[in-house]
Amino acid sequence: MRRMMVAFIALMLLALPAAHAVQPDEIMSDPAKEARARELSRELRCMVCQNQSIDDSDAPLARDLRLLVRERIAAGDSNAQVLDFLVARYGEFVLLKPRFERQTLLLWLLGPLLLIGGGLALWLQIRRRSRSGADVPTSPLTPDEEARLAALMSDDTKSSEIRKAT
């Protein structure tokens, strides 16, 4: 049993993705520039994995993008210039967090607008339901309905008396 548990834990540890996929040969000699490269790599989407940053991805394209980021930093580009270069080359999709611009306005505002719209629809439905319940006039029972109700109630009274007796 103990061996099974150790084997299971070892298998789980092997299945975990690497914390950072950056290879040792990619690391820049200047720690400040390497920190900038890591910061930028966390903001860029792996075009293969799509829900991982290039810093976390093992895909060959992510490695190429990490190297490209480091080349641009080594050439003296600022962080904004590196991001602008990659957006011009790959489009806004390369950014994990898209910029707040005219093209992405719908993306940024759709969530809050849906939430507000849903809340408004819920409020209107509750309001309509409460009004419709108060405005419904109660009509008196017909003589046939009153007789059926009395018969049903007398049956319930008899059955409850029988239950009490037993």
How would you describe this protein?
This protein has helices at 2-15, 31-43, 60-74, 79-90, 105-135, 143-165. The chain is mainly alpha-helical and 166 residues long. Helix 2 (31-43) crosses helix 3. The two termini are 58 Å apart.
Number of distinct beta strands: 0
Low confidence ranges:
none
For the termini, the CA-CA separation is 58 Å
Question: Biggest β-sheet, characterized?
Answer: none
Q: Helicity, in percent?
A: 55-70%
Rg, alpha carbons: 34 Å
Order of helices and strands: HHHHHH
- SS-based class: mainly alpha
Overall form: elongated
Report the portion of residues in β strands.
under 5%
Mean pLDDT: 82
The helix tally amounts to: 6
Defining key terms:
65% helix, single chain, mainly alpha, 166 residues
Write the layout of secondary structure elements.
Layout: H1 2-15, H2 31-43, H3 60-74, H4 79-90, H5 105-135, H6 143-165
Structure summarized in a few sentences:
The chain has 166 residues and is mostly helical. It has helices at residues 2-15, 31-43, 60-74, 79-90, 105-135, 143-165.
